[in-house]
Specification:
It is built from 20 helices and no strands. α6 packs antiparallel against α7. The chain is mostly helical. 71% of the residues lie in helices and 0% in strands. The radius of gyration is 21 Å and the shape is globular.
Length: 363
């Protein structure tokens, strides 16, 4: 209701003062977001508001604001760069453009913790993990700034992705400094993973016991950590290392880690599907598109009815590959396949990404 109220006021103001750029900044991101809402939530939007928009419309409006910023002292310049960078990252799937925009923005991560968060966050999402670690390492930490313990969580995550044993130091700092409710369970899970990949199974068990007892179930990642703790099943170390290396953008190392294995190395359907999915993702980033598509199809066929997200994400990434190759009909087929698969975890985010893909192809 509040967003709908804001939308109506912004559109009214746009008609009254069409040259007022701060108005266009907010409308731009709202138009883009509305264009990616999954069909399963469309009824709510239509019921609550008359909000309409597309990614292309939102992008053009933000680009107009950025052009206006040139040579002017515009109070919302930095914010507009951030909004545009995230639009490029999440809705346009243009990671290099997102990184370039943020790097060329007025953000200074050495003098502003929030700027450090934004640059490191985007870096960690596009495989620039070492750059993110450097940003977080040299961020301002004096008491002149409001406490920002989540940066310790990010620092630990970035180190974990390159299998660095120092990751747990930063996770513990997050637990010591944070007084809120989010990501507590996930932090214990990541500390458990760090112990496991360094051969400490007892440490893994102790951290997962803390995961069971501490924290709240308010985020998808905390719920995922809780599920792992409840199963009592220790993750396959080889798959875990491959996952972490991939998440950090260390694609060659991840390929070496996973390609030494074969599906006969795994016993359960869940592990086999995860293996096909993770190796497919590595091959995708290595531009081995046909191999990636073959692996994704195996993950979809075997995993579409499992509760894990691997099959749903495999369909999404297959759609991204076909979109990249210019085979738009096949891309639409796999984006729709993603929407048909309903995993227990990450469903909303995956479906929104698929909807964004369909939106791009129809614009």
């Amino acid at each position: 209701f509040e967003v709908n109220k804001a939308f109506k006021l912004l559109e009214k103001n746009q008609k009254l003062y069409p040259d007022f750029m701060p108005n266009k900044k907010d409308l731009g991101i709202l138009h883009a977001i509305v264009g990616t809402i999954p069909d399963s939530y469309k009824w709510a939007v239509e019921w609550l508001s008359a909000a309409e928009g597309t990614i292309q419309q939102g992008q053009e409006e933000l680009e107009e604001v950025l052009a206006y910023c040139e040579g002017k002292d515009f109070i919302f310049e930095t914010e507009t760069y951030v909004l545009y960078g995230y639009l490029m990252l999440h809705f346009r799937k243009n990671s290099e453009r997102a990184w370039t925009v943020i790097q060329n923005s007025p953000l200074d991560p050495t003098n502003n913790p929030l700027a450090a968060f934004i640059q490191a966050n985007i870096g960690m999402r596009i495989g620039k993990n070492d750059e993110a670690i450097q940003i977080l390492q040299y961020r301002p930490k004096s008491r002149a700034f409001h406490p920002f313990p989540y940066l310790e969580f990010m620092h630990g995550t970035a180190l974990l992705r390159r299998l660095d044993a120092q990751a747990s130091v930063h996770f513990q700092r997050y637990l010591d400094q944070f007084t809120g409710q989010n990501f507590i369970k996930e932090t214990y899970q990541k500390m458990a993973w760090s112990a496991l990949i360094h051969g400490d199974q007892i440490g893994y068990q102790l951290h997962m016991q803390s995961c069971m007892r501490q924290g709240y179930l308010l985020t998808g990642s905390d719920e995922s950590a809780q599920r792992e703790a409840e199963t009592g099943t220790i993750p396959n170390v080889d798959l875990l290392k491959g996952r972490l290396l991939f998440d950090g953008g260390y694609y060659q190392q991840a390929h070496q880690q996973l390609s030494l294995l074969g599906e006969q190395h795994f016993h359960s359907d869940t592990e086999k599907v995860e293996y096909w999915y993770r190796l497919g993702r590595v091959q995708q980033e290595r531009q081995q598109h046909q191999q990636a598509l073959t692996l994704f199809q195996k993950a979809i066929d075997r995993g579409q009815y499992l509760p894990d997200y691997y099959a749903c994400r495999a369909a999404l990434e297959a759609g991204h590959i076909y979109e990249h190759l210019g085979q738009n009909q096949k891309a639409k087929e796999y984006f729709n396949r993603c929407l048909d698969i309903k995993p227990e975890e990450h469903r909303s985010a995956l479906h929104q990404a698929a909807k964004a893909g369909l939106n791009r192809l129809s614009s």
